[in-house]
Amino acid sequence: MGHPLGPQSSPAPAGTTAIPGLIPDLITRLPWPCWAIIAIAVAAGVLMVSCLLCAVCCCCRCGHRKKPRDREAVNLGSPQGTASTHLVQPDVDTSETAPEDAQHWGRLQLSLEYDFSRQEIKVGLKQAADLRAYGPGGTADPFARVSLSTQEGHSHETRVHRSTLCPVFQETCCFHIPQEELAGSTLRVQVLGSKRFSAPEPLGELSLPLGAVDPQHVLEQWHQLGPPGATEPEPSGELCLSLRYIPSSGRMTVVVLEARGLSPGLADPYVKVQLMLNQRKWQKRKTSARKGTASPYFNEAFTFLVPFSQIQSVDLVLAVWARGPQFRAEPVGKVLLGARASGQPLQHWADMLAHARRPVARWHPLRPAREVDHALGLKTRLHLTLPGSRD
């Protein structure tokens, strides 16, 4: 008699395969090693996860794009969302562009103090920041020019600062003005960029009415610079000259090259070259006159013996003279160079000392004769007109 078959020994139906042995049978039938099959499985899993993440990101982006931008702008402008889009958006634009326009011309730190005993106002130029660049590499060679509206022709220039947009001036100038005229005066500060062979580049300007300033206190604060004034005073002309100094021999050569921009009503222009030592007249020369031109070309050289020990005590004054409508010689303007000069003339003097034995040429605007005499401490002489007299 045979024993009945148990559940463990029951044969599988024909045409079927046991499930527990499916994967091992497939693995054993593949000709690849186990580590290769595991690597393929891991790569397939990473690829599936990456596809799922990309699909989620695309859905999120589509959801953000469907939101109206106009409503977002309104919600930023007003939390209640009652404002219209064309009213909110211009406010946002002006708030963003206003600081850029304001910083375009830069800032200036200034101090003001009025001396009641001397009847003069002291203007302290501290520093400037964020100036407009015009030179190569996004830089400038700035200097400042200070003047009062009630004192035409009298101004102060700082020295030139090379390759910077944030110059530190630390200079003080004084203007004599009575207290009763203080309220009606306006302080004008021009920030200019120095150029070697052309007129200075205007970088910004500050107009400060002194009537709004309390003279009882010392004021020091930052001021925003504005665009340069549209109406500039017409210059009296420019003079081009070259300087060369040899320290070993003490020979200083001054070459008067040419002038331009002189008034057409002037005739026979010429140039006086005067050397002063310790505020006293020392040596002088004079070019020949050029007739029938407002842009005379001289190209005349003059040599002065100045020992190196006295070079810092010397002032060089070049004055352009010409015959006016009254047929007598009158000073058209002057240029002051030396250690007591300011602005571009002081920089020209420093370049001459820094580059010994090499000529350095520059254009300089002509300043009023009274202004230069005041800077030198010279007293104005009473000029008597005599019949048939000529300077």
Keywords:
391 residues; alpha+beta; four-stranded antiparallel beta sheet; 6 helices; 16 strands; 35% strand; disordered C terminus
Report on the architecture of this protein.
- This protein is α+β, with helices and mostly antiparallel strands.
- The chain contains six helices and 16 strands.
- The strands form four sheets. Strands 5-2-1-8 form a four-stranded antiparallel sheet, with no helix packed on it. Strands 4-3-6-7 form a four-stranded antiparallel sheet, with no helix packed on it. A four-stranded antiparallel sheet has the order 13-10-9-16, covered by helices on one side.
- Strand 11 and strand 12 form a beta hairpin.
- Helix 3 crosses helix 4.
- It is elongated.
- The N and C termini lie far apart (161 Å).
Compact description:
With 391 residues, the protein is of the alpha+beta class.
Largest sheet: 4 strands, antiparallel
Overall radius of gyration:
41 Å
Number of helices in the DSSP assignment: 6
Q: What is the overall shape?
A: elongated
Q: Record the strand order, biggest sheet.
A: 5-2-1-8
Helix content: 10-25%
Unreliable stretches covering 5 or more consecutive residues: 5-10, 12-18, 66-103, 230-234, 380-391
Give the strand tally.
Answer: 16
Percentage beta strand: 35-45%
H-E order: HHHHEEEEEEEEEEEEEEEHEH
Distance between the termini: 161 Å
Mean pLDDT: 77
Helix and strand content put the structural class at alpha+beta
